Amino acid sequence: MDRPALAAWYRDTVQPAMAADPAVERDPETEPPKYRWINGKHPGFVKRLQREWGLSVGEFHATHIHPRRSERTDEGLNNGSGGDESRTTGNSERDSVERLVAEFEDAGTTASDYDWGLPETAAAAETRTRLDRFIDDLGADDAATTVRPIRSRLKLYVRLYRELHDRDDLISPLRDRDGRAAEIDRVLDTCRLLRRAMGTERSAKKYVKDVRWWYTAMYENEYIDYNPTSRILKRLDFEDLDPDNPPLAPDDVRALYHVADTTEERLLVIGLSGWGLRPSELAALSTDQLVLDPTDDGVPYIEFDEERKNGPGTVSMLYGEVVVETRIAEVADQTPWSGHLFPSDVDGVDHIHVDTLRRRFADLVERADIEVNGVPPTPKYGRRFWYTAYTDASAAIAERVGIVGEEQGSADVDVILDNYLSEAKRREYVREEMRERLSGVFGESNTPT
């Protein structure tokens, strides 16, 4: 079937179906269907456009069904950074975004063969690396079907950022504190376009939350000097919707810790929810990675080799020293002992398999009788709890600094953080806040007796 024949089929089949579907709010004569609708009704049509002609549904509609529409589509994307848009511009923004989403659907399934839509330039190289490592990190614990939409949402954000700001490097500006305000505005403008382009508040929040997740991970891993999305949900005035990727709630973590009968089980809960480790990292944790009496800032930490994906070489242990030391005492007398805190019972194997750790976590979940959004949580929910708690702790410190600034006649929190509070002191305050939050959840002393 050539393009004219396909266009005729579209007019005879797709347009009448759109007109008859009460859920479709678009005009079939002048607007293309939403990607999810057409892909659900005629996936073969969508794939044929993409594979044979490299077209999205929106592009096909603009060139073969309603050609004048293309001018408004381009205009909508280029003018997406501000101002009061008409309904036409709003629709063209949605079309532009859906066109970009459609382009990403058939991309590769691993970071190594995934095209982020970035040019092969030195400026874009580290951005691609940080995106790859973030996705690899998720892929270690999540099924591909879970990782794929997150990756697509991030790619869409990167594409829109490039189109709006004509920049291929999203990392270097986050190491230039003098340009902090300008970069925060660029990120905010991109997320505003995402919000306007999505059909629902919930859908928009899903995109923005994944963007924030990526930036937060880079900041906590100390790849960047500040997080431009630390207060983005508030600035976008999102409603308080149920989270799309929920963490364990503090009461959930508390319940898991309460039913933990052994030091090993308590260490499992602390490692996931108190340190934010991956299940595989926790299963393989060894005493030669632990620095329990550091000489610099006094905060114990876990040391990882340079192969750790999407993570810093060290992870602070803001809580759990007493549990760690108790666990070491329990397993140190085993013969032979390789130094792992979760030793395996299998001859010749140093530590438990990650699947064993997952099963033990599932047992704790069953005994604690907890669910998150109606399903039993998995270890990644504990890791999300840590990220959420740390983000909240950072926001709490920023709020306190803002109150002090108001008393001193300065209302801009960012200015106060930059000019009056060193990065080292800020991290110290956040750590203290985080330690207090963890102590409130686990309810035990953090200091060995």
Give a quick summary of the entry.
With 449 residues, the protein is mainly α.
Give an account of the 3D structure.
- This protein is mainly alpha-helical and about 450 residues long.
- The chain folds into 3 domains: about 100 residues, no CATH class; about 140 residues, no CATH class; about 200 residues, hpI Integrase, Chain A.
- The protein contains 19 helices and 3 strands.
- Strands 1-2-3 form a 3-stranded antiparallel sheet, with no helix packed on it.
- The longest helix has 29 residues.
- The protein starts with a helix and ends in a 7-residue tail after the last helix.
- The C terminus is likely disordered.
Tell me the Rg in angstroms. Answer: 25 Å
Domains (count): 3
Kindly state the percentage of residues in helix: 55-70%
CATH superfamily placement of the largest domain: Intergrase catalytic core
User: Describe the biggest sheet?
Assistant: 3 strands, antiparallel
Termini separation comes to: 78 Å
Could you please say which CATH topology of the largest domain applies here? hpI Integrase, Chain A
Structural class: mainly alpha
Element order: H for helix, E for strand: HHHHHHHHHHHHHHEEEHHHHH
Content of β-strand: under 5%
Number of E strands: 3
Can you tell me the residue ranges where pLDDT is under 50 for at least 5 consecutive residues? 68-94, 98-112, 140-145, 239-243, 403-415, 445-449
Total number of helices: 19
CATH class of the largest domain: Mainly Alpha
Mean pLDDT: 76
What descriptors fit this protein?
449 residues, mainly alpha, hpI Integrase, Chain A, three-stranded antiparallel beta sheet, 19 helices
